[in-house]
Specification:
The chain is α+β, with helices and mostly antiparallel strands. The protein has a single domain (about 5-230), classed as Sulfite Oxidase, Chain A, domain 2. The protein is built from six helices and ten strands; from the N terminus they run αααββαββαββαββββ. It starts with 5 loop residues before the first helix and ends in a 21-residue tail after the last strand. Bound molecules: ligand MTE and molybdenum atom. The ligand Nc1nc2c(c(=O)[nH]1)N[C@H]1C(S)=C(S)[C@@H](COP(=O)(O)O)O[C@H]1N2 binds near residues 75, 161 and 204.
Length: about 240
């Protein structure tokens, strides 16, 4: 359905990126609804990626902006802070997708901005109400046209951190790839240019400096930086 010519492909991609909305993604005429991602078996406990994209899950209540605790978010980085040139930055989305993506920060920033004020909870015993702004991960996954067998999502970070998430959590409407914190551009220490943020997962699931998102059918022996040292994998809140 998508022409092989890189130029045509880029044009299609740009049109889709610039006109993107969750509803438009699935129902709009941009050629995004593909017969190959519709009509696969519905698994109740382990819902298919297409069912999850069509049925957004229940929203977690958010806080008003007045509840933001500007100094409560403690920088928590296991090693050193990577310095990524935002101009050279690319987010790769690959694995079990029909259309692997390689997106610049600019392309991410022309997609619809979602802003949410939520509580960040670290297992080390602190929490902070933070406002995050960025792109819904579900929109990015939909854009990459996931294959029916995609069940988990791996996040690779520039500091060597890695994480894996279950598909329902990754496609939750409040799971965002963010580039703003408390109304400002994300700082390098907090994960710039792009990090994960979600009110449904503990802090260690929320990878900073994400450069690659890979959809996979099964979990690998490596499940996450902290998980591989004994932390619980699901990390739900
Ligand atoms: N790449 C990367 N992401 C990471 C971490 C890390 O060390 N490296 N630490 C995690 C932990 S334990 C927490 S609590 C949050 C902290 O985010 P902050 O440093 O922006 O407060 O980032 C998470 N994401
Ligand atoms: Mo944490």
């Amino acid at each position: 359905m998508f022409p092989d010519s890189p130029r045509l492909w880029q044009r299609r991609q740009f049109l889709q990126l610039s006109g993107l909305s969750s509803i438009g993604l699935l129902l709009g005429g941009c050629g995004l609804v593909q017969s190959d991602i519709i009509g696969k078996t519905f698994e109740p406990f382990n819902q298919s990626v297409e069912a999850l994209l069509l049925n957004p899950q229940k929203l977690v209540p958010e806080f008003p902006a007045s509840a933001i605790e500007p100094n409560a978010l403690i920088i928590n980085t296991f090693d050193s802070t990577p310095n990524i040139d935002p101009k050279a930055f690319r987010l790769i989305i690959d694995g079990e997708v029909n259309r692997p993506l390689n997106l610049s920060l600019e392309q991410l920033q022309i997609m619809p901005l979602s802003v949410m004020t939520i509580r960040h909870v670290c297992v080390e015993g602190w929490a902070a109400i933070v406002q995050w702004g960025g792109v819904r991960l579900r929109d990015l996954v939909a854009l990459a046209k996931p294959k029916a067998n995609a069940r988990y999502v791996y996040f690779k970070s520039a500091d060597g951190y890695y994480e894996s998430w279950d598909m329902p959590s990754a496609l939750h409407p409040q799971t965002l790839m963010v580039y703003q914190k408390n109304g400002n551009p994300l700082s390098v220490e907090n994960g710039a240019p792009l990090r994960l943020a979600s009110p449904i997962k503990l802090g260690y699931k929320q990878s900073k400096w994400v450069t690659r998102i890979t959809l996979v059918p099964e979990l690998l022996p490596e499940k996450g930086y902290w998980e591989d040292q004994g932390y619980e994998w699901f990390g739900g809140l």
